[in-house]
Amino acid sequence: MPEVIFPGPDGRLEGRYQPPKVKNAPIALILHPHPQHGGTMNNKVVYHLFHAFARRGFAVLRFNFRGVGRSQGEFDNGIGELSDAASALDWLQTYNADAPSCWVAGFSFGAWIGMQLLMRRPEIQGFISVSPPASMYDFNFLAPCPSSGILIQGTADEVVPQESTAKLAEKLQAQKGITVNYTTIPGASHFYENHMEQLIGSVDGYLDQRLKA
Fold first, then answer.
1. Strand positions, DSSP E, the chain
2. Domains of the chain by residue range
3. What is the tens place of the pLDDT at every residue in 75-117?
4. How big is the CA angle at 25 (ends 27 and 113), to the nearest 5 degrees?
């Protein structure tokens, strides 16, 4: 799993990259939680999302947003971080120009950024949003949501009320032409302590279902 440094809009960005096992493999970008609340690319949820795609032969990139770890720049309230994510996807596509499909996965703040990236990059065909902060940020830009995906939420989330994510899921599920799954992890907190196995089980099950189809 090589460490990589690639250019971002506000300086270099630090990442970890898993090359594909075969040519013309699909690609996936993984986005971490809030930089000002300890979020990094080494977050446990992010780490497990990364490896869920890697196990299936994807070319996968996770990286630190600006101002985190060795990534240059300063926190920019989501605007700059969205630009960082776009640059990371550009880099991933440069090395995997013939990828047949593209996915984005994010946790908490990273889920919000990922859903915005989804709206701007039509090549993204699938998404995984873990604990999207629907009570903190406006998700009305998903009008309509262009790709199918899954929202996953812990029922004991102390940061994002389950009701807010359920409401977001209901809104997205009403849109035609896509399928948005909504899965809850009973008893799981925002960071899925003691529930990581159940979380990744849901991710694995969804990915296997989509990739088989």
1. 3-8, 11-18, 27-31, 59-63, 102-107, 124-130, 148-154, 180-185
2. 3-212
3. 999 999 999 999 999 999 999 999 999 999 999 999 999 999 9
4. 5
Closest CA to 154 of 133, 138, 170: 133
Residues 2-30 have pLDDT tens digits of 999 999 999 999 999 999 989 999 999 99
End-to-end CA distance of the chain: 28
Strand partners, 27: 59, 102
Contacts of 169 (CB under 8 A, 6+ apart): 151, 180, 182
Q: Which two tokens stand for residue 139?
A: 């998700």
Which residues does residue 128 pair with via DSSP β-bridges, in sequence order? 105, 150
Q: What CATH class does 3-212 carry?
A: alpha beta
Does the reported pTM lie above 0.90? yes
